[in-house]
Amino acid sequence: MKRIIFSLFLLFLVMVDAHAQEFNSIAEPIVNPTNPDAEEAIDSIEKDLSDVWSLCKSSPLKKRDRDSILMHKKLHLAVIPGIGYALQTGFSTFIAGNGVFKTAKGASTNPSSFYTLISYTQYKQLLLPLVLSIWTPKNKYHITSDNRFLKYPSLTFGIGERALDAPPSALNFLYLKMHETIMRKIRPNVYVGLGYYFDRFWKIREVSNTRHRGTPAFIGLNLDEEALASGLVVKITYDSRPRLINPLKGLYASLLVRDNTPLLGGDSRWRSGLIEIRKFFTLPGRAKNVLAIWSHNWFTLNGNPHYLMLPSTGWDDNFNTGRGYIQSRFRGSDMFYLEGEFRYRILPSGILGGVVFGNLQYFTGNPMRSDQILVPAGGLGLRIKMNKKSATNLAIDYGFGINGSQGFFINLGESF
Questions:
Q1: What pLDDT band is residue 23 in, cutting at 50, 70 and 90?
Q2: How far is 273 from 297, CA to CA, in rounded Å?
Q3: 327-363 pLDDT, tens per residue?
Q4: Beta bridge partners of 296
Q5: Strand locations in 138-225, DSSP E?
Q6: Any bridge partners for residue 326, and if so which?
Q7: Whole-angstrom Cα distance, residue 338 to residue 397?
């Protein structure tokens, strides 16, 4: 069945390319490199926090002068300290660094970028990411590098139906992730490429209690103390979004297949796949309200991945699936995920907006069992415009799930 789905998806990509020529990461470029001339115009009434700040300063730097300074810089760097919050981490402090540069002059080459951060959380977690997005001249190649080290005591709930009512178990582990890909443009809006993915978990152990979370129960997971996956990936993407951050319209579709093998140092042979689709509709009217739809489908194609490498809530690349639940709340052999979000303006200037969202998660059990689980969630939130040129918002959401699950979810940028 999963092979049939993958075949149909490949056909879908071909059909989309023929008929539709139209990371939720800080390191993502602003304008779509496959369609750089389609950048969405900024309304004259559009405002962000920098406009508010300039009104409060007695001698503000003229906007025209500030922009000309940034245009002549070969490398633009920003270092930002801050405070964050998530259900899995609690409150956290961080220092983030972001850089933007170009590998060639001219509008035909998209800005490259890198992003790094050091964060320490309320629950004694340490997070160290380094994410790079490099565009070669005229966007012929796109090179991505997603590297993360986590010292990550956290909660988990087991696999399949038992996770519905199971008390949490506390896990301690260290995690090193290195995901590298190189993509080549073969047609307008279409890239294909290869990559290498490495994931290592070690010092894995289930513990009886944590200082801040009460006393979790032992689930008896009997996990190996180490797990290592190493393998090649094949990836194809179609992207017609005029901009990559908070788009008003367009379609993004991606297919990835990963082959983990002992030949490259992995513990065992297993394959996984990912199908992702994001579609954005600008609704009628002058307010630029948007209906956004996200489908994230993560499969175990064959073999037996380690428990920590199975599809799970909140373990997509940007940790955003499953708003309404704590990360790792559900886990299984396969994950089908669907989310819809209505994004609307509260103030005409766009500096303040709101969202209403809902999502569904469907998991099959582990490869040795057939139990399944379907869980809904929903919520609402506020959006504060941090930068009108990049369309970046501060997202503050409150999500609700079943069995009393609820909490705040705070992001710099949209969930998808």
A1: very low
A2: 8
A3: 999 999 999 999 999 999 999 888 999 999 999 999 9
A4: 276, 337
A5: 141-151, 154-156, 169-187, 190-207
A6: none
A7: 18
Neighbouring residues of 18: CB distance < 8 A, sequence distance ≥ 6:
none
Supply φ then ψ for residue 6, to 5 degrees. Answer: -65, -40
**Tell me, what DSSP letter sits at residue 184?**
E
CA distance 22 to 16: 10
Structure tokens at 110: 């998209």
| pLDDT tens-place string over residues 219-274 | 777 788 999 999 999 999 999 998 888 999 999 999 999 999 999 999 999 999 99
The residue assigned the tokens 């630029």 is: 288
The CA distances from residue 112 to 101, 105, 115, 363, in Å, are: 5, 12, 11, 36
How is 56-70 classified by DSSP, letter by letter?
A: H-SSPPPHHHHHHHH
Q: Is 54 helix (H, G, I), strand (E, B) or coil?
A: helix
Alpha-helical runs (H) found in 41-141: 49-56, 63-72
Show Cβ contacts of residue 235 under 8 Å, excluding neighbours closer than 6 positions: 181, 183, 192, 193, 194, 195, 254, 255, 256, 257
Say how far residue 235 (Cα) sits from the centre of its chain: 17
Identify the CA nearest to 258 among candidates 331, 204, 318, 309: 309
Distance CA 323, CA 320 (A): 7
- Exposure b/e, 57-94, CB count within 10 A at least 16 = b: eeeeeeeeeeeeeeeeeeeeeeeeeeebebbbbeebee
> Is 409 or 208 the better-scoring residue by pLDDT?
409
Token readout for 195 is 């990559």
CA–CA separation, 118 and 135 (whole Å): 25
The tokens for 345 are 């303006």
Cα separation, 144 vs 247, in Å, equals 21
CATH class of 2-412: mainly beta
